[in-house]
From TrEMBL:
Transmembrane segments: none annotated. Pfam families: Amidase. Gene3D superfamilies: Amidase signature (AS) domain. Residues 27-421 form the Amidase domain. This is Amidase domain-containing protein. It comes from Acer yangbiense.
Protein backbone atom coordinates (compact mmCIF):
# COMPACT_ATOMS: atom_id res chain seq x y z
CA UNK A 1 0.00 0.00 0.00
CA UNK A 2 1.58 3.27 -1.11
CA UNK A 3 -1.23 5.53 0.12
CA UNK A 4 -0.99 7.34 3.49
CA UNK A 5 -4.27 6.41 5.17
CA UNK A 6 -3.85 8.30 8.44
CA UNK A 7 -5.92 11.52 8.40
CA UNK A 8 -7.21 10.78 4.86
CA UNK A 9 -10.65 12.16 4.05
CA UNK A 10 -13.45 10.24 2.35
CA UNK A 11 -12.77 12.09 -0.92
CA UNK A 12 -9.07 11.24 -0.73
CA UNK A 13 -9.81 7.60 0.01
CA UNK A 14 -12.21 7.40 -2.93
CA UNK A 15 -9.61 8.94 -5.24
CA UNK A 16 -7.04 6.41 -4.00
CA UNK A 17 -9.50 3.59 -4.77
CA UNK A 18 -10.06 5.01 -8.24
CA UNK A 19 -6.32 5.28 -8.96
CA UNK A 20 -5.66 1.75 -7.65
CA UNK A 21 -3.43 3.09 -4.88
CA UNK A 22 -5.62 1.57 -2.19
CA UNK A 23 -8.14 -1.24 -1.75
CA UNK A 24 -10.93 -1.49 0.80
CA UNK A 25 -9.21 -4.58 2.23
CA UNK A 26 -6.02 -2.60 2.80
CA UNK A 27 -8.03 0.21 4.38
CA UNK A 28 -9.88 -2.13 6.73
CA UNK A 29 -6.62 -3.91 7.60
CA UNK A 30 -5.05 -0.54 8.47
CA UNK A 31 -7.90 0.39 10.81
CA UNK A 32 -8.02 -3.06 12.42
CA UNK A 33 -4.28 -2.70 13.02
CA UNK A 34 -4.73 0.70 14.63
CA UNK A 35 -7.57 -0.61 16.80
CA UNK A 36 -5.34 -3.49 17.89
CA UNK A 37 -2.50 -1.07 18.63
CA UNK A 38 -4.37 1.75 20.36
CA UNK A 39 -7.68 0.53 21.70
CA UNK A 40 -6.31 -1.16 24.81
CA UNK A 41 -5.53 2.38 26.04
CA UNK A 42 -8.18 4.54 24.33
CA UNK A 43 -11.13 2.12 24.70
CA UNK A 44 -12.96 3.76 21.81
CA UNK A 45 -14.16 0.49 20.26
CA UNK A 46 -16.23 -2.20 22.00
CA UNK A 47 -16.02 -4.83 19.27
CA UNK A 48 -15.08 -5.17 15.62
CA UNK A 49 -17.15 -6.79 12.91
CA UNK A 50 -15.76 -10.29 12.24
CA UNK A 51 -17.02 -9.95 8.65
CA UNK A 52 -15.26 -6.60 8.01
CA UNK A 53 -12.56 -8.05 5.74
CA UNK A 54 -15.12 -10.10 3.83
CA UNK A 55 -17.18 -6.94 3.27
CA UNK A 56 -14.04 -5.12 2.14
CA UNK A 57 -13.28 -7.85 -0.40
CA UNK A 58 -16.84 -7.59 -1.66
CA UNK A 59 -16.44 -3.81 -2.09
CA UNK A 60 -13.18 -4.31 -3.98
CA UNK A 61 -14.85 -6.80 -6.30
CA UNK A 62 -17.76 -4.42 -6.94
CA UNK A 63 -15.28 -1.68 -7.81
CA UNK A 64 -13.40 -4.04 -10.11
CA UNK A 65 -16.50 -4.91 -12.16
CA UNK A 66 -17.72 -1.28 -12.00
CA UNK A 67 -20.96 -2.18 -10.24
CA UNK A 68 -23.35 0.82 -9.96
CA UNK A 69 -23.01 0.68 -6.17
CA UNK A 70 -19.27 1.32 -6.42
CA UNK A 71 -19.97 4.89 -7.57
CA UNK A 72 -21.65 5.81 -4.27
CA UNK A 73 -19.84 8.27 -2.00
CA UNK A 74 -19.29 5.92 0.96
CA UNK A 75 -18.61 2.79 -1.07
CA UNK A 76 -15.85 0.74 0.56
CA UNK A 77 -15.43 3.23 3.44
CA UNK A 78 -15.30 1.70 6.96
CA UNK A 79 -17.53 3.24 9.62
CA UNK A 80 -17.98 2.66 13.33
CA UNK A 81 -21.46 2.98 14.78
CA UNK A 82 -22.18 3.71 18.42
CA UNK A 83 -23.11 0.59 20.35
CA UNK A 84 -26.69 1.75 20.91
CA UNK A 85 -27.36 1.54 17.14
CA UNK A 86 -28.63 -1.89 16.09
CA UNK A 87 -26.78 -4.04 13.57
CA UNK A 88 -28.27 -7.35 12.44
CA UNK A 89 -24.95 -9.14 12.11
CA UNK A 90 -22.50 -11.06 14.29
CA UNK A 91 -21.99 -8.09 16.61
CA UNK A 92 -23.89 -7.16 19.76
CA UNK A 93 -25.98 -4.04 20.33
CA UNK A 94 -25.80 -3.34 24.05
CA UNK A 95 -25.56 0.42 24.78
CA UNK A 96 -22.35 -0.56 26.57
CA UNK A 97 -24.16 -2.73 29.13
CA UNK A 98 -23.76 -6.43 29.89
CA UNK A 99 -27.53 -6.47 30.42
CA UNK A 100 -28.04 -6.60 26.64
CA UNK A 101 -25.12 -8.88 25.79
CA UNK A 102 -26.45 -11.73 23.66
CA UNK A 103 -29.67 -9.93 22.76
CA UNK A 104 -30.84 -10.23 19.16
CA UNK A 105 -32.26 -7.24 17.29
CA UNK A 106 -35.08 -7.72 14.76
CA UNK A 107 -33.31 -5.78 12.00
CA UNK A 108 -30.60 -3.26 11.26
CA UNK A 109 -31.31 0.23 12.51
CA UNK A 110 -32.70 2.33 9.65
CA UNK A 111 -29.53 4.46 9.57
CA UNK A 112 -27.38 1.31 9.32
CA UNK A 113 -29.45 0.07 6.38
CA UNK A 114 -28.94 3.45 4.72
CA UNK A 115 -25.17 3.28 5.30
CA UNK A 116 -24.98 -0.21 3.81
CA UNK A 117 -27.04 0.93 0.82
CA UNK A 118 -24.52 3.76 0.39
CA UNK A 119 -21.73 1.17 0.23
CA UNK A 120 -20.22 1.71 3.68
CA UNK A 121 -18.53 -1.14 5.57
CA UNK A 122 -19.72 -1.48 9.18
CA UNK A 123 -16.33 -1.89 10.88
CA UNK A 124 -17.50 -2.26 14.45
CA UNK A 125 -19.23 -0.77 17.48
CA UNK A 126 -17.95 2.35 19.20
CA UNK A 127 -17.95 2.62 22.97
CA UNK A 128 -20.13 5.11 24.83
CA UNK A 129 -21.09 6.37 28.23
CA UNK A 130 -23.24 3.40 29.27
CA UNK A 131 -26.93 3.61 28.27
CA UNK A 132 -25.98 6.85 26.47
CA UNK A 133 -25.35 8.36 29.91
CA UNK A 134 -28.89 7.63 31.10
CA UNK A 135 -27.17 5.69 33.88
CA UNK A 136 -25.27 8.82 35.01
CA UNK A 137 -21.77 7.37 34.86
CA UNK A 138 -18.45 9.19 34.17
CA UNK A 139 -18.08 10.36 30.59
CA UNK A 140 -16.80 7.60 28.34
CA UNK A 141 -17.28 4.75 30.82
CA UNK A 142 -19.25 1.60 30.10
CA UNK A 143 -19.17 -1.85 31.64
CA UNK A 144 -18.24 -3.66 28.43
CA UNK A 145 -15.18 -1.63 27.44
CA UNK A 146 -14.16 0.32 30.52
CA UNK A 147 -13.10 3.98 30.55
CA UNK A 148 -12.69 5.70 27.18
CA UNK A 149 -9.76 8.12 27.03
CA UNK A 150 -9.08 11.33 25.17
CA UNK A 151 -6.36 10.68 22.53
CA UNK A 152 -4.99 14.23 22.85
CA UNK A 153 -4.50 14.17 26.62
CA UNK A 154 -5.16 10.76 28.12
CA UNK A 155 -6.12 12.22 31.50
CA UNK A 156 -8.58 14.71 29.96
CA UNK A 157 -12.34 14.22 29.81
CA UNK A 158 -13.30 12.44 26.55
CA UNK A 159 -16.83 13.70 27.12
CA UNK A 160 -19.93 11.72 26.20
CA UNK A 161 -22.02 9.95 25.50
CA UNK A 162 -20.74 9.31 21.94
CA UNK A 163 -17.22 9.24 23.34
CA UNK A 164 -16.02 6.16 21.45
CA UNK A 165 -17.22 7.51 18.12
CA UNK A 166 -15.21 10.72 18.63
CA UNK A 167 -12.14 9.04 20.16
CA UNK A 168 -11.89 6.49 17.34
CA UNK A 169 -12.17 9.01 14.51
CA UNK A 170 -9.76 11.45 16.20
CA UNK A 171 -7.17 8.70 16.72
CA UNK A 172 -7.51 7.34 13.16
CA UNK A 173 -8.94 4.00 14.25
CA UNK A 174 -11.67 4.53 11.64
CA UNK A 175 -12.51 6.87 8.77
CA UNK A 176 -15.92 8.09 9.95
CA UNK A 177 -18.43 7.24 12.68
CA UNK A 178 -22.01 7.59 13.86
CA UNK A 179 -23.07 8.96 17.23
CA UNK A 180 -26.37 9.77 18.90
CA UNK A 181 -27.43 12.84 20.84
CA UNK A 182 -30.15 13.54 23.36
CA UNK A 183 -28.47 16.55 24.93
CA UNK A 184 -24.83 17.15 23.98
CA UNK A 185 -23.82 13.58 23.20
CA UNK A 186 -22.48 14.36 19.70
CA UNK A 187 -21.47 17.99 20.17
CA UNK A 188 -19.63 17.51 23.50
CA UNK A 189 -17.28 14.63 22.55
CA UNK A 190 -16.67 16.26 19.18
CA UNK A 191 -15.53 19.41 20.94
CA UNK A 192 -13.38 17.52 23.46
CA UNK A 193 -11.68 15.29 20.85
CA UNK A 194 -11.09 17.88 18.09
CA UNK A 195 -13.46 16.43 15.51
CA UNK A 196 -16.56 17.55 13.61
CA UNK A 197 -19.97 16.50 14.87
CA UNK A 198 -23.35 17.19 13.30
CA UNK A 199 -26.39 17.00 15.57
CA UNK A 200 -29.29 16.93 13.09
CA UNK A 201 -32.79 18.30 13.54
CA UNK A 202 -34.78 15.70 15.50
CA UNK A 203 -36.48 13.41 12.95
CA UNK A 204 -34.10 14.17 10.10
CA UNK A 205 -32.47 10.79 10.85
CA UNK A 206 -34.60 7.85 11.94
CA UNK A 207 -34.27 6.55 15.51
CA UNK A 208 -35.74 3.16 14.59
CA UNK A 209 -33.42 0.45 15.92
CA UNK A 210 -31.58 2.80 18.26
CA UNK A 211 -31.67 2.22 22.04
CA UNK A 212 -33.70 5.27 23.12
CA UNK A 213 -33.69 7.86 25.87
CA UNK A 214 -36.47 10.13 24.61
CA UNK A 215 -38.22 10.32 21.23
CA UNK A 216 -38.58 14.07 21.73
CA UNK A 217 -34.84 14.77 21.68
CA UNK A 218 -32.93 11.71 20.37
CA UNK A 219 -31.18 12.13 17.03
CA UNK A 220 -28.42 10.30 15.12
CA UNK A 221 -25.56 12.10 13.42
CA UNK A 222 -22.02 11.80 12.04
CA UNK A 223 -18.76 12.33 13.88
CA UNK A 224 -15.82 12.77 11.48
CA UNK A 225 -12.53 14.61 11.07
CA UNK A 226 -13.83 17.14 8.52
CA UNK A 227 -17.09 18.91 7.77
CA UNK A 228 -17.13 17.38 4.27
CA UNK A 229 -16.83 13.83 5.61
CA UNK A 230 -19.64 14.49 8.10
CA UNK A 231 -21.84 15.80 5.30
CA UNK A 232 -21.19 12.70 3.16
CA UNK A 233 -22.41 10.57 6.06
CA UNK A 234 -25.37 12.86 6.77
CA UNK A 235 -26.47 12.61 3.14
CA UNK A 236 -26.41 8.83 3.42
CA UNK A 237 -28.52 8.50 6.59
CA UNK A 238 -31.33 11.07 6.30
CA UNK A 239 -34.76 10.16 5.03
CA UNK A 240 -38.33 9.13 5.76
CA UNK A 241 -38.86 5.92 7.73
CA UNK A 242 -42.38 4.64 8.33
CA UNK A 243 -41.15 3.18 11.64
CA UNK A 244 -40.29 6.64 13.01
CA UNK A 245 -43.13 9.11 12.73
CA UNK A 246 -40.86 12.10 13.43
CA UNK A 247 -39.17 11.55 10.06
CA UNK A 248 -42.42 12.29 8.23
CA UNK A 249 -42.35 16.00 9.07
CA UNK A 250 -38.57 16.39 9.22
CA UNK A 251 -37.97 14.80 5.81
CA UNK A 252 -39.46 17.91 4.18
CA UNK A 253 -36.32 19.74 5.30
CA UNK A 254 -34.05 17.54 3.14
CA UNK A 255 -32.89 19.63 0.17
CA UNK A 256 -33.16 18.37 -3.38
CA UNK A 257 -29.70 17.21 -4.34
CA UNK A 258 -28.64 16.55 -0.74
CA UNK A 259 -26.30 18.42 1.56
CA UNK A 260 -22.99 18.13 -0.33
CA UNK A 261 -23.93 21.16 -2.46
CA UNK A 262 -23.59 23.38 0.65
CA UNK A 263 -19.87 22.69 1.08
CA UNK A 264 -18.95 26.18 -0.09
CA UNK A 265 -15.59 27.75 0.87
CA UNK A 266 -17.33 31.13 0.71
CA UNK A 267 -20.17 29.89 2.93
CA UNK A 268 -19.69 32.62 5.55
CA UNK A 269 -20.34 35.48 3.16
CA UNK A 270 -23.44 37.45 4.12
CA UNK A 271 -24.40 35.22 7.06
CA UNK A 272 -25.79 36.88 10.22
CA UNK A 273 -24.24 35.18 13.24
CA UNK A 274 -25.38 35.89 16.79
CA UNK A 275 -23.07 35.69 19.80
CA UNK A 276 -24.58 34.94 23.20
CA UNK A 277 -21.84 35.69 25.74
CA UNK A 278 -23.79 35.04 28.92
CA UNK A 279 -23.35 32.32 30.15
CA UNK A 280 -21.27 30.70 27.40
CA UNK A 281 -18.26 33.01 27.64
CA UNK A 282 -18.57 34.11 31.25
CA UNK A 283 -17.91 30.53 32.40
CA UNK A 284 -14.61 30.20 30.49
CA UNK A 285 -11.65 30.31 32.88
CA UNK A 286 -8.69 30.39 30.45
CA UNK A 287 -7.93 33.84 28.94
CA UNK A 288 -6.29 32.22 25.92
CA UNK A 289 -9.55 30.46 25.00
CA UNK A 290 -11.34 33.81 25.13
CA UNK A 291 -8.61 35.32 22.94
CA UNK A 292 -8.94 32.42 20.50
CA UNK A 293 -12.64 33.06 20.08
CA UNK A 294 -12.21 36.80 19.67
CA UNK A 295 -9.78 35.94 16.88
CA UNK A 296 -12.32 33.50 15.39
CA UNK A 297 -14.99 36.21 15.40
CA UNK A 298 -12.61 38.46 13.52
CA UNK A 299 -12.04 35.66 10.99
CA UNK A 300 -15.79 35.27 10.56
CA UNK A 301 -16.06 39.01 9.84
CA UNK A 302 -13.16 38.91 7.41
CA UNK A 303 -14.89 36.10 5.52
CA UNK A 304 -18.01 38.20 5.07
CA UNK A 305 -20.19 37.28 8.05
CA UNK A 306 -22.13 39.91 9.99
CA UNK A 307 -21.55 39.46 13.73
CA UNK A 308 -24.38 40.49 16.06
CA UNK A 309 -22.76 40.53 19.50
CA UNK A 310 -23.89 40.48 23.16
CA UNK A 311 -27.25 38.87 22.55
CA UNK A 312 -29.39 37.29 25.27
CA UNK A 313 -31.66 34.27 25.12
CA UNK A 314 -34.74 34.77 27.25
CA UNK A 315 -34.94 32.17 30.02
CA UNK A 316 -31.38 30.96 29.43
CA UNK A 317 -30.73 30.26 33.12
CA UNK A 318 -33.77 27.99 33.27
CA UNK A 319 -32.87 26.26 29.99
CA UNK A 320 -29.35 25.50 31.21
CA UNK A 321 -30.62 23.86 34.41
CA UNK A 322 -32.52 20.60 33.65
CA UNK A 323 -34.08 20.64 37.14
CA UNK A 324 -35.50 24.14 36.56
CA UNK A 325 -36.55 23.70 32.93
CA UNK A 326 -37.98 20.26 33.61
CA UNK A 327 -35.88 18.64 30.88
CA UNK A 328 -34.63 16.02 33.34
CA UNK A 329 -38.12 15.11 34.54
CA UNK A 330 -39.48 14.80 31.00
CA UNK A 331 -36.46 12.74 29.96
CA UNK A 332 -36.95 10.32 32.87
CA UNK A 333 -40.61 9.76 31.97
CA UNK A 334 -39.78 9.16 28.31
CA UNK A 335 -36.84 6.87 29.10
CA UNK A 336 -39.00 4.39 30.97
CA UNK A 337 -41.67 4.30 28.26
CA UNK A 338 -39.37 4.39 25.22
CA UNK A 339 -36.80 1.91 26.56
CA UNK A 340 -39.47 -0.58 27.60
CA UNK A 341 -40.90 -0.43 24.08
CA UNK A 342 -37.45 -1.01 22.54
CA UNK A 343 -36.67 -3.95 24.83
CA UNK A 344 -40.04 -5.58 24.17
CA UNK A 345 -39.29 -5.50 20.43
CA UNK A 346 -36.05 -7.49 20.66
CA UNK A 347 -36.13 -11.02 19.24
CA UNK A 348 -34.07 -12.35 22.16
CA UNK A 349 -33.07 -10.42 25.26
CA UNK A 350 -31.99 -11.13 28.85
CA UNK A 351 -33.99 -8.03 29.88
CA UNK A 352 -37.40 -6.85 28.72
CA UNK A 353 -38.03 -3.79 30.88
CA UNK A 354 -36.12 -0.99 32.58
CA UNK A 355 -36.92 -2.74 35.86
CA UNK A 356 -35.15 -5.85 34.53
CA UNK A 357 -32.09 -3.76 33.65
CA UNK A 358 -31.96 -2.28 37.15
CA UNK A 359 -32.29 -5.75 38.69
CA UNK A 360 -29.54 -7.08 36.41
CA UNK A 361 -27.20 -4.28 37.47
CA UNK A 362 -27.78 -5.06 41.16
CA UNK A 363 -26.28 -8.50 40.66
CA UNK A 364 -23.51 -7.45 38.30
CA UNK A 365 -20.38 -7.83 40.42
CA UNK A 366 -18.03 -5.53 38.56
CA UNK A 367 -16.05 -3.16 40.76
CA UNK A 368 -16.72 -0.14 38.49
CA UNK A 369 -20.41 -0.97 38.22
CA UNK A 370 -20.80 -1.12 41.99
CA UNK A 371 -18.85 2.13 42.29
CA UNK A 372 -21.00 4.12 39.88
CA UNK A 373 -24.44 2.76 40.65
CA UNK A 374 -27.41 3.50 38.40
CA UNK A 375 -29.20 6.52 39.80
CA UNK A 376 -30.32 7.76 36.38
CA UNK A 377 -32.11 4.50 35.64
CA UNK A 378 -33.67 4.43 39.13
CA UNK A 379 -35.03 7.95 38.66
CA UNK A 380 -36.66 6.93 35.37
CA UNK A 381 -38.17 3.78 36.87
CA UNK A 382 -39.92 5.84 39.55
CA UNK A 383 -41.94 7.79 36.95
CA UNK A 384 -45.52 6.85 36.10
CA UNK A 385 -45.98 7.92 32.50
CA UNK A 386 -46.88 11.24 30.94
CA UNK A 387 -49.01 12.55 33.81
CA UNK A 388 -50.29 16.07 34.42
CA UNK A 389 -46.99 17.17 35.95
CA UNK A 390 -44.97 15.94 32.96
CA UNK A 391 -47.42 17.55 30.54
CA UNK A 392 -46.89 20.87 32.33
CA UNK A 393 -43.12 20.39 32.03
CA UNK A 394 -43.40 19.66 28.29
CA UNK A 395 -45.43 22.85 27.82
CA UNK A 396 -42.75 24.79 29.71
CA UNK A 397 -40.02 23.36 27.47
CA UNK A 398 -41.99 24.40 24.37
CA UNK A 399 -42.40 27.91 25.75
CA UNK A 400 -38.70 28.19 26.61
CA UNK A 401 -37.78 27.25 23.04
CA UNK A 402 -40.35 29.51 21.42
CA UNK A 403 -39.61 32.55 23.60
CA UNK A 404 -35.88 31.82 23.71
CA UNK A 405 -33.86 30.78 20.68
CA UNK A 406 -36.70 31.01 18.15
CA UNK A 407 -37.69 34.53 19.15
CA UNK A 408 -34.06 35.71 19.27
CA UNK A 409 -33.21 34.36 15.83
CA UNK A 410 -36.35 35.74 14.22
CA UNK A 411 -36.07 39.19 15.81
CA UNK A 412 -32.36 39.51 14.97
CA UNK A 413 -32.76 37.80 11.56
CA UNK A 414 -29.94 35.40 12.46
CA UNK A 415 -28.72 32.50 10.34
CA UNK A 416 -27.01 30.84 13.33
CA UNK A 417 -25.90 31.35 16.90
CA UNK A 418 -22.19 30.85 17.64
CA UNK A 419 -20.91 29.62 21.01
CA UNK A 420 -17.67 28.16 22.38
CA UNK A 421 -17.52 24.44 23.10
CA UNK A 422 -20.75 22.49 23.41
CA UNK A 423 -22.42 24.13 26.41
CA UNK A 424 -25.10 25.39 24.03
CA UNK A 425 -26.46 21.84 23.71
CA UNK A 426 -29.44 22.16 26.14
CA UNK A 427 -30.82 25.05 24.06
CA UNK A 428 -30.66 22.88 20.94
CA UNK A 429 -31.83 19.74 22.75
CA UNK A 430 -35.14 20.92 24.18
CA UNK A 431 -36.22 22.43 20.85
CA UNK A 432 -35.05 19.58 18.61
CA UNK A 433 -32.74 22.02 16.82
CA UNK A 434 -29.56 21.19 14.84
CA UNK A 435 -25.98 22.12 15.63
CA UNK A 436 -22.49 21.55 14.23
CA UNK A 437 -19.23 21.44 16.19
CA UNK A 438 -15.96 22.30 14.44
CA UNK A 439 -12.47 22.15 16.03
CA UNK A 440 -11.54 25.61 17.31
CA UNK A 441 -8.28 25.21 19.23
CA UNK A 442 -6.37 23.67 22.13
CA UNK A 443 -6.03 25.04 25.65
CA UNK A 444 -2.84 25.53 27.68
CA UNK A 445 -2.81 21.80 28.47
CA UNK A 446 -3.32 20.85 24.78
CA UNK A 447 -6.91 19.73 25.44
CA UNK A 448 -9.09 20.45 22.38
CA UNK A 449 -12.12 22.71 22.30
CA UNK A 450 -14.63 23.38 19.55
CA UNK A 451 -16.94 26.06 18.23
CA UNK A 452 -20.67 25.36 17.91
CA UNK A 453 -22.97 26.73 15.23
CA UNK A 454 -26.65 26.22 16.11
CA UNK A 455 -29.87 27.10 14.36
CA UNK A 456 -33.58 26.39 14.02
CA UNK A 457 -35.17 23.21 12.69
CA UNK A 458 -34.20 22.29 9.16
CA UNK A 459 -31.40 24.84 8.86
CA UNK A 460 -28.68 22.22 8.21
CA UNK A 461 -27.87 23.70 4.75
CA UNK A 462 -27.13 27.09 6.34
CA UNK A 463 -25.16 25.56 9.21
CA UNK A 464 -23.09 23.44 6.81
CA UNK A 465 -22.16 26.50 4.76
CA UNK A 466 -21.14 28.35 7.92
CA UNK A 467 -19.25 25.44 9.49
CA UNK A 468 -17.44 24.58 6.26
CA UNK A 469 -16.57 28.22 5.66
CA UNK A 470 -15.10 28.48 9.16
CA UNK A 471 -13.19 25.20 8.83
CA UNK A 472 -11.67 26.15 5.49
CA UNK A 473 -10.70 29.59 6.80
CA UNK A 474 -8.99 28.23 9.93
CA UNK A 475 -8.02 24.54 9.42
CA UNK A 476 -7.26 24.24 13.12
CA UNK A 477 -7.55 20.51 13.64
CA UNK A 478 -4.34 18.55 14.13
CA UNK A 479 -4.00 14.82 14.78
CA UNK A 480 -3.39 13.61 18.35
CA UNK A 481 0.21 13.31 19.48
CA UNK A 482 1.72 9.82 19.30
CA UNK A 483 1.81 7.82 22.51
CA UNK A 484 3.09 4.43 23.50
CA UNK A 485 0.22 2.02 24.19
Amino acid sequence: MDFPVREATVAELQLAFKKNRLTSRQLVEFYLGEISRLNSVLRGVIEVNPDALHLADKADQERKVKAPRSLLGLHGIPILVKDNIATKDKMNTTAGSFALLGSIVPRNAFVVTKLIEAGAIILGKASLSEWANARHVPNGWCARSGQGRNPYVLSADPSGSSSGSAISVAANMVAVSLGTETDGSILCPSSSNSVVGIKPTVGLTSRNGVVPITHRQDTIGPICRTVADAVYVLDAIVGFDHNDEATREASRYIPLGGYIQFLKPSGLKGKRLGIVRDPFFTDIKEPEIIRAFEHHFQTLRQRGAVIVDNLKILGIDAIMNPFVSGEGKAMDADLKLDLNKYLEGLVVSPVRTLADVIEFNKFEKLEMTEKYGQQGLLDAQETDGINAEVKEVLLNLENLSRDGLEKLMKEQKLDAVVTPGADFSPVLAIGGYPGINVPAGYDSNDVPFGICFGGLKGTEPMLIEIAYGFEQATKIRKPPPPFKP
